[in-house]
Design a protein that fits this description.
Number of helices: 13
CATH architecture of the largest domain: 3-Layer(aba) Sandwich
Strand order of the largest sheet: 4-3-1-2-11-12
Radius of gyration: 18 Å
Number of domains: 2
Shape: globular
Number of strands: 12
Structural class: alpha/beta
Distance between the termini: 40 Å
CATH topology of the largest domain: Rossmann fold
Low-confidence stretches: 247-258
Largest sheet: 6 strands, parallel
Oligomer: single chain
């Protein structure tokens, strides 16, 4: 559990968008693959904790653009085009709020996409920057090549704390490994050990999992680093913010009643839906239901 007070975020630019979560009916999440499921992992855990509360039931629509995976190796123009298409598709699904499950998409296209839709869009970079800026620690960021190239995390953090030391390391191979659901292999362990050593040598005191795919590797990375080094999963922080922030008469409350869902999430996949379901099940620990095929050609028409 990440320790913070909701009051710490009251001056956060997107506070009011988080506060809307208590009233929304349908949430849209998208990612290039299974990484965004880390958000569902934490939302499901919170929903189970609050299963006695039947108010504010919600639906979740999840789009995995695995047919065009990986985003981390695409050009900024391609990433912007893909993300714009997905935003329009989610609008057609009548979602009330969109969460970027793909930090690469947000790093490349986020600022511009906020201008093409009236829907509130939440990301995993800005709230992390706000949170870590208060800690005074040397920061490490493990992310995709595109996110590292954009310096999205370091720019966002330094907007709050200009003097913080930040080391960004690209780990594209890990994205492919998680997408295959191959999170326990020796290859994975060797790569994680190498990245852990790089952060230790740079004096990192907190490592941000800057790609949502890496959420599923957190438990395997922890034993490889010094116990004094913290690991921050942005998906966990964002879900805690969503489940704590509810707006009643414009007052900030610590309300956990906004986490229940009417049913299992509905999934749409642009790639191989059976492969997606199989990898996702291995990462989440339970089988997915309601997995549907979505043609890339349909998105390209939007």
């Amino acid at each position: 559990m990440i320790e913070f007070s909701p009051q710490d975020f009251k001056d956060f630019d997107k506070f009011k968008d988080y506060a809307k979560f208590g009233q929304l009916k349908r949430l849209g999440i998208f990612d290039s693959g299974i990484g965004g499921l880390s958000l569902l992992k934490y939302l499901r855990a919170q929903s189970l904790d609050d299963k006695q509360n039947n108010r504010n039931k919600k639906e979740i629509i999840y789009l995995a653009d695995s047919g065009r995976f990986p985003y981390g190796m695409k050009s900024p123009k391609e990433i912007f085009t893909y993300t714009q298409q997905i935003i329009h598709w989610l609008e057609q699904k009548n979602v009330d709020l969109i969460v970027f499950g793909c930090n690469t998409a947000n790093a490349i296209a986020g600022d511009e996409l906020n201008q093409i839709t009236q829907l509130p869009i939440l990301d995993l970079i800005d709230p992390v920057a706000k949170y870590v800026s208060t800690l005074g620690l040397n920061i490490g960021v493990l992310a995709t090549q595109a996110t590292v190239n954009s310096h999205a995390f370091s720019k966002a953090i330094r907007a709050y704390a200009p003097k913080l030391s930040i080391t960004e390391i690209a780990a594209t191979q890990l994205v492919n490994i998680v997408e295959r659901g191959d999170i326990t292999s020796k290859e994975t362990q060797d790569l994680l050990a190498d990245y852990a050593n790089q952060f230790v040598s740079q004096g990192a005191e907190l490592i941000i999992l800057g790609c949502t795919h890496f959420s599923f590797l957190k438990d395997y990375l922890l034993p490889l680093i010094d116990k004094r080094i913290q690991i921050l999963d942005p998906a966990e922080l964002v879900v805690q913010l969503l489940t704590k922030f509810s707006q009643h008469d414009d007052q900030l409350t610590d309300n956990l009643s906004c986490t229940n869902f009417t049913s299992e999430p509905t999934f749409f996949v642009t790639g191989d839906k059976e492969a997606f379901a199989s990898s996702a099940s291995r990462c989440l620990g339970y089988p997915l239901k309601n997995v549907n095929q979505l043609a890339i050609a349909h998105l390209e028409c939007l």
